[in-house]
């Protein structure tokens, strides 16, 4: 009797369907370790992706190929029509394309490995069931179905049967922001009331979080603030709202009938010109190599559907900026995978001669192969001179990189003793023994491949075995409370490890004896906490960032190397002293002195060109 195929489970929501398939006599393949463990709890034996996966696998070449394709598709001569008001729409969408194409190539490689080992497999890959809102990124529905699409493509190439379950995710019905609603009326009323407060000398428009800018805004009585995100209003104390005459202006509030009409007309022209461009892309060497037939729907969707939203965003942002006439624009980032308004605001600001400033909140992207290394804002308020040197290496004028430090890091320098006291309380509440050594591990985003996260846990366990009495704190990202990774940690470490997520990271670092993290902002927080730092895991292909951070801390690529290094840190006092000196020298190239807020305030009051050299 023929079995009903191999059911592929890659999400926890698919557990029940996988159990039913197995009970009907079919095979199950798990691409997610946490799902695999939950199936085992139900008595279901599943093939594991771990059987096919190489621990030394480097996805760098795949990511680079995706970045090249995302950069090239809109640059061919036949795609030159794809712009609005001299803003190339392909550039606005490039980061989202790079993320999607990277995921597609990643899953293609996975299913190629699986089918090499199972040459006669009949794959059944279910669609995810999550709903998609209009607030998600441009390619979210393609990203959600990418596992199915990659599996289907690999099966078809080999002439193998293939099936799915469920419904394919569809894009939201509306590509654009919904029209004016009661929210818009409420914002207009609020703005009218707050507008009675006398104007301030400087007007700032910010697409930022209040907690990022509060440290310097609170000392600037001469600045009024126009915020893009209305939800931030609830995070601002009333005294600051009145002091800064805080008003709200989101592009959706300016997306009226005239904006929609312009966007619709432009889209109609794009659809006509796409026929020629599509034929040119089909024979382009890069896309022939990539497999044009599988990616054509993605590019067609961007040009013939989603572009309407970007055009409307350009029109609405221009109306908004002309009406508000800010003196400067603050941006949280220059490039975003899911929000094109950062790119749009930076380009429009330059056209309207309004200086734009991106505030560095995380480690700088210094890999010229990546779209995220681009600086679209006129200026970057950077962590320090070391960052400026790296941008100059990528061809960015040094005058655009202004060493400010980090206003949100000021408290780390000025309140270290208070942070240490908070950390002591957290450790006590977690049941850890302060008389024993403590290691803090920053856990990557759990959206990362689950088997890689498990490899991290195992590597730390191997390191723990080398240090008697070592306790481990696994710091998950805020809000990530998935039960299976935590259960995995308990099985490995017992009572000698705890998992936390919402707790104050800096406070925990201050009371830890050593920290481990990958390419993350935790690097800086650990250095400011003055504890030994080890960088692990690290992608072998991430050579530019490795060069950037090698002067700060040892970079490790294997579990054995990590175990040896942890043991050395705890056993060799001279080595700890060397690491402390190394970290101190590294920080000398940064502006972390507790005065970043003062420098940021001075920058906002200064005269800046909107077209810096």
State the end-to-end CA separation.
73 Å
Mean pLDDT score: 92
Helix count equals: 24
The beta-strand count equals 19
Q: Radius of gyration over alpha carbons?
A: 26 Å
The major beta sheet can be summarized as: 7 strands, parallel
Strand order of the largest sheet: 10-9-8-11-12-13-14
The portion of residues assigned to helices is: 40-55%
What is the overall shape? globular
- Strand content bin: 5-15%
Which spans have pLDDT < 50 for at least 5 consecutive residues? none
Q: Give the structural class.
A: alpha/beta
Question: What would your notes on this structure say?
Answer:
With 613 residues, this protein is an alpha/beta fold. The strands form 4 sheets. A 7-stranded parallel beta sheet has the order 10-9-8-11-12-13-14, sandwiched between helices. A 5-stranded parallel beta sheet has the order 3-2-1-6-7, sandwiched between helices. It has a 5-stranded parallel beta sheet with strand order 17-16-15-18-19, sandwiched between helices. Strand 1, helix 1 and strand 2 (27-30) form a beta-alpha-beta unit.
